């Protein structure tokens, strides 16, 4: 039996079906998880997909952080379960403090939707092992609250520990400090990023490239070899 990857749906989630499809294309078994259910259904990893959970009221991800499912996700993540947060999922991860920092409104105050080039800075996480450090990829970006911020001490620590996973190229799209597009926790099992790898897993949709598929093949290899 293949590894099982849970995909959480909150009220307002947009990209859960796309994420399930990406998981399936990579050879994994996608398992839908509902926000009100604490039971993770014995999954091996979890993805928090993009969207506007709870309408982004208060702050993006602020209400989702208190959903019953997140109690289990937080507990399992601290125990080593791989967790990926994409866009709104990244925002939720910062609200839970599984990842440091916060996400603010884009510096230009507009929603942005475009193909975005990234540089892989860390290929040693559970979700990036199929990439190479320094590799450049292109995947879709779509957000209005995508500006990553943290205090200088936190930023310096992320840099020193190699926990910046992705950095924006060809111009910073949202004002994120130090061009940070994605980060990881110290253990490397929790990763969050604003761009959408699930929209770049087959040539007929998204960017017309498969640059995002590596996230899902990386976790497949991680789980199969565990």
From TrEMBL:
InterPro entries: Class_I_gatase-like (IPR029062), PRibForGlyAmidine_synth_PurQ (IPR010075)
Tagged with keyword Mitochondrion: no
EC number: 6.3.5.3, 3.5.1.2
Residues at the catalytic site: 87 (nucleophile), 196, 198
Keywords assigned: ATP-binding, Cytoplasm, Glutamine amidotransferase, Hydrolase, Ligase, Nucleotide-binding, Purine biosynthesis
Pathway: Purine metabolism; IMP biosynthesis via de novo pathway; 5-amino-1-(5-phospho-D-ribosyl)imidazole from N(2)-formyl-N(1)-(5-phospho-D-ribosyl)glycinamide: step 1/2
Catalytic activity: N(2)-formyl-N(1)-(5-phospho-beta-D-ribosyl)glycinamide + L-glutamine + ATP + H2O = 2-formamido-N(1)-(5-O-phospho-beta-D-ribosyl)acetamidine + L-glutamate + ADP + phosphate + H(+); L-glutamine + H2O = L-glutamate + NH4(+)
SUPFAM superfamilies: Class I glutamine amidotransferase-like
Single annotated GO MF: ATP binding
Listed Gene3D superfamilies: 3.40.50.880
Family matches, as Pfam families: GATase_5
GO cellular component, one term: cytoplasm
GO biological process, one term: 'de novo' IMP biosynthetic process
Subcellular location: Cytoplasm
HAMAP family assigned: PurQ
Functional description taken from the UniProt entry: Part of the phosphoribosylformylglycinamidine synthase complex involved in the purines biosynthetic pathway. Catalyzes the ATP-dependent conversion of formylglycinamide ribonucleotide (FGAR) and glutamine to yield formylglycinamidine ribonucleotide (FGAM) and glutamate. The FGAM synthase complex is composed of three subunits. PurQ produces an ammonia molecule by converting glutamine to glutamate. PurL transfers the ammonia molecule to FGAR to form FGAM in an ATP-dependent manner.
Oligomer status and interactors: Part of the FGAM synthase complex composed of 1 PurL, 1 PurQ and 2 PurS subunits.
Name of the molecule in the record: Phosphoribosylformylglycinamidine synthase subunit PurQ
Organism: Streptomyces eurocidicus
